[in-house]
Amino acid sequence: MSLIYSGLTSIFNKISDELRKSFLFTTIFSILEFIEDQWVNSYFKRFYPDENFLNFLNKNIILKEHIFNPLIVLFLFAIFLILSLNPPSTSLVITLIIAFVGFFIGSAIIPRHVPIREVVHFNRKDIYSIGFCLMLISIVFFFISVASVGGIPLLKPSIRYLLKPAFTMPVFLIIPGTCLMAGAYLKDYQDNEITRSQARFRFIFLLVIDCAFLLLLGYRTPLLAAFLIIIIMGFYGNIVSLWEVVVGALIGIGAIIGIGYFRSLGEMTITSSTSPFYTLQSRADFTLHVLNLLDFIGGNFGLTHGHLLASSIPGSDLGPRMMVGKLIAWRTEVTVTPTLIGQMVVDFGKVGVFVEMCLLGFVLGIGFKIMQKTRDFFYIGIYSLILTYSILGIETGILDIQVLIYFIIAVFIYLTCVKRSFYN
């Protein structure tokens, strides 16, 4: 495995080095350095609130120490359920209790008994080069996606449904690319090679790039992913203050509501007199209704026995969310979000929900423990990535092949650290 990693990083490093030497990127980075210098030395920066702004937040130990604890997944899942206009069935309530208990055991109890004494360390240059190349790939496929539908989906919402997954999936590589590049800048800050102001500027710039491309495609979920990753990494890297986390969360929620509201207006599914919150409530209600049906189908031991999760693999006749549509309505032309536990209950029933939620909790719990122990730039980044997609998966489920790959990579790295700790 180390040979594969060395070979890949060697290729990424060469590509990154050559591109950064080109006239185009030399010019771009020179301009960015000038803007960064103006930012750092700006007179107006002094008017921006300091770390002690809204200081009462810092006095709340739960917010200050545990705001991004893995248990935030359960907290947000509960809020999502409360948003629904209709209550869940009795059977689903039992399933949800099982899910919550399984996740709590996996994230809060088991990791306490797993020793972490030594971790795998990653080279800053390797991580930066991989992130840089992923960002370039995503930008190239953004233009291919836009050209393939003959317009910008944000301006013409109807053409978003014409986007081809083969072109849009690589665009979403901008998320892990941002995560890795932000991690490299965090390492520079930790090593005192750049100031906190420079690190903040670079984090913000990465977020602006993400917003520019993802917003134009009209996707809310990846846009929120970009916000979450930057906020979580910045918080644990001491680049972002607690009050900025709270404000950023409100902005993220506003983005979800706003984009959904204006998209619904454009598609004429609501009128301008409808409350903007209705789009969020109705979406939660519909998703919970889907989960009620899936829980009924799955029962105690499941129906599809892994086929729903396997349908995430490219080349499958139906994608996982299309398969959900077929299961509950016999319609294969639509995609339906099944929530975090939808796939679990359909594949393996209530038993599977407990096992899979326990495993998910363990991955996040051990990742959180390693991150807190090391404060290493890479482990802050990888935890931020998997926590972000766990939070977003509350509605959508963890079913996209690229997201599953992120988790597989994280599990492999975490288990390697655990193995080293046991033997050393």
Automatic annotation (TrEMBL):
Pfam families: O_anti_polymase. The chain crosses the membrane at residues 67-85, 91-110, 130-155, 167-186, 207-236, 242-262, 352-370, 377-395, 401-418. It comes from the Archaea. InterPro entries: O_anti_polymase (IPR002760). Coiled coil: none annotated. The keyword tRNA processing does not apply. Keywords: Membrane, Transmembrane, Transmembrane helix. This is Oligosaccharide repeat unit polymerase.
